[in-house]
Design a protein that fits this description.
Radius of gyration: 22 Å
Helix content: 40-55%
Strand content: under 5%
Strand order of the largest sheet: 1-4
Oligomer: single chain
Amino acid sequence: MFGCGMILKRSDGVDLNAFYPVRPECNDDARKTRFKVKPGKTLSARKWHAAFSEKGHMDIAKVLRRIQRGGVHPSIRGVVWEFLLGCFDPNSTFDERNQLRQQRREQYGIWKAECQKMVPLIGSGRVITLPIKNDNDQQLNADKDCNGAVSTSSLDPSISHEGLVENMDKKKVKNWKLILHQIGLDVVRTDRALSFYESEINQAKLWDVLAVYAWVDSDIGYVQGMNDICSPMVILLEHEADAFWCFERAMRRLRENFRCTTSSIGVQSQLGTLSTIIKTIDPQLHQHLEDLDGGAYLFAFRMLMVLFRRELSFVDALYLWELIWAMEYNPNIFSMYKEERTVAETALKVDEKLLMKQCGKFEKEKVKTGHVDHESALAVFLVASVLETKNKALLKEAKGLDDVVKILGETTGKLDAKKACKVALKIQKKYLNKTKQS
């Protein structure tokens, strides 16, 4: 988790600290924030509102160009993210989006009510950090397939668990209850430097969203690191249900990263793709890492798992994420997420020229080349860009995996998000060209 660490300086008249206040006692250990609001480049509130027609149709291509040039102004970041992540169709109207937002809030309310019936502390403004007990005042025990994530710390005698929802899968209920205190333990350690989480109410908001998500997506449940992905949504979007749906859309991109079994980690497939990319564009570096027994690229696990959140200040992580999502944007994204339609049906309805115009830079290259490997996300190429930037040091100084970790660790707090994305796009183009030739 984060330690104390983000001083946010005034840039171009914008006091970033006003948007993401830091606890005073954390200022001395601050990480430098590189992101600056740049007039003419950063997507401003004025440019954002100007991108909509009178009825609410959005010129997404114009918005993407601006974000890819300079990110999003913090005053509108939450609502912009909802579009980048596919919560809303840019071709919809204001009325259609308001109706959909209300429907989603009601659905979230239904799911949260289900959770409250099983554990009344959901929605109470409190966070569970100790294991739940059953009706016989005994600690619940993890089944063999519960991923081994349950703590054996002491019980909390104050927690009641009456009123189980009838006709529910008892195993699902039990496994969900087992992870609630683990979510709580992670929540109280999340972004502790931010003043926002000095309030237990705000911590509880994050805990509620993660708890409800774990109930709805029981296949993944909860895995450490999801709190790092969810936290910005909770901070940026005032309504808890809106934060939930924004997180849910982000997880549609990332959920396979968190699928862990006794024999594999979810991010392993992306690590395999990273290995293939480096082997293709930089055989010498790949061979060197192989010789150091690092060919599995496990040293890059954390970068991919939580999208560089541990390598960047809070503000720079948000900036990097919106750059990634803008560059990966595909206008099909909203329709692809509508369960009643198939991806194939949706693809047929989109004019190819319009598709190219409304795609982000990274996605556009994939569409042009017909490269549809879902594991080749921009984040994988970003890690490749970090490795390429440290190429000389890795080849000369790395005598073992500890050295590799140390050298890559030097990027912590120093990564320039925009430059890293530019290098990643160049690596993508080089990789796709080499792949096409072979």
